[in-house]
Amino acid sequence: MGEWQLTRTYRSTSGEVRWDSLGEPGRPPVVLNHGTPFSSYVWRAVARALARRHQVFVWDMPGYGSSRMTAGQDVSLAAQGRVFTELLAHWGLDEPRVVAHDFGGAVSLRAHLLHGARYHSLVLVDPVALAPWGSPFFRLVGKSSDVFEQLPPALHRALVREYVTSASSPGLHPAVLDRLVQPWLGDEGQAAFYRQIAQADQAHTDEIEDRYGEIAIPTLICWGEDDTWIPAAKGHELAARVPGARLELIPGAGHLVQEDAPAELTAALRDFLD
């Protein structure tokens, strides 16, 4: 499935963040934000394709992927929105093109609407943006995260594999599934997995939901037609709330559009970003 390694480090207010960039400096910047329970790894194919014309920035949110995972860490949407704003300043990006998936959508929206982060344009891919959100499994774990955290490692591994698998409509390549699950294994990873779910408070999107009408930048909303985590109906609702937003449905793709239909998603992004 190709190598994917983030080689640079930024010390954020929520812990050490791993990041990297692809493409030649000086080209129009694009930032790719991942969701939960994923990492920048899901953007690998899209990032490499976009790097032909842009400088592409990728990062793992604190508590995710190769970034630092620590006990008591604040990995809430509020914290991630602040960290993203910090990162943009660290990178020296004034108005980048931002592409955000799932929780990354909420992170990008909070940074823009609450922290004054300025974007050239915004693409939201199956974002967490409108209430109610969270699958039945997600809500169950959120209520009993301390219990789930004590699962035997083999049961935890099976649970995470099944959960991640359900994000794809056609199914994930075994090597990709292994890579997506791996950060959540071991004592540190298992605790981090349930920590991020326990802190996933819908109040963090309720706080900004009524402000989507203030978004005044070009906005594209992409949605997997077969998304069972957040149904495509939410895409239509979100597009109606953001002035001038265009909705593009991607056939055959579930919630994890980057894995299910990378070529179709990349084509939509290139058309919009160009």
UniProtKB/TrEMBL annotation:
Span of domain AB hydrolase-1: 28-262
Top-level taxon of origin: Bacteria
Recorded GO MF terms: hydrolase activity
Cited InterPro entries: AB_hydrolase_1, AB_hydrolase_fold, Carboxylesterase_BioH, Epox_hydrolase-like
Keywords: Hydrolase
Official protein name in the record: Alpha/beta hydrolase
Organism: Streptomyces aquilus
